[in-house]
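Our consortium's second objective concerns turning raw sequence data into structural hypotheses that experimental partners can test. To show how far this objective has progressed, the report includes one record in full. It was chosen at random from the queue rather than selected for favorable results. The single chain below, 226 residues long, was entered without modification.
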Amino acid sequence: MASGNLFGSESVEAPTRQRAGEVIHAHCDGGARGNPGPAGYGAVITAADGSKLAELSEFLGNRTNNYAEYSGLLGVLAWGLEHGYRSVRVVSDSELMVKQIQGKYKVNSPDLRALFDEAKKRIAKLDSFQITHALRHKNKDADRLANEAMDRGTGRSRPQETVRPSTPEKPISRAEPRTTEPAAAPAKSAEPASGQMLRGFVRGGVIHLLGGHTLPEGKFVKVVTE
């Protein structure tokens, strides 16, 4: 987990061991649930041969999306400098941040200006640096780590062993009365006399006669609604 001190100079001092010429590749992402809202960033750092070197994931508190995106970049730069790497290649799905770092967009937000300046300060300590934009679906692992950070910070994460099979929303207790309708009483077989007025009701498009009366098949009747 990366250090929460994004601006601390201690985190970017050159270590005793240098890895001159070795290139690391990083995918970073940041997000906030709300803008601002609970925020976090994640990053995956790999060597040139594709082997994984580190995963970074940190909850940032109540921040904006753009703050979280910059925090991901700063976390990657801090890790690279702390471990002696001087060539860094970064991929991010934040078009705004990427183009600001590339100098294509201006940094108008005072809140982002400090983050931008710190990123440039760290980049200046590298021998080579490159940042490119990618669509979100090509940044899945970093996105997952950012969401895990937000889950931890908001208490939404759940240990796997606590997951239980789903149960009915409201199981019926043995002592709880059933709500199903009682079975209808058997119909009487008495056939009404000709001309006799009968009463009944309609359910589901079918006429049900009261008094248990039934009519033979093919019998014509006159229906008067009440």
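The partners drew two points from this record. Residues 9-158 form a domain with the Nucleotidyltransferase; domain 5 fold (CATH 3.30.420.10). The first strand starts at residue 19 and ends at 32. Both points have been shared with the crystallography group to help prioritize constructs.
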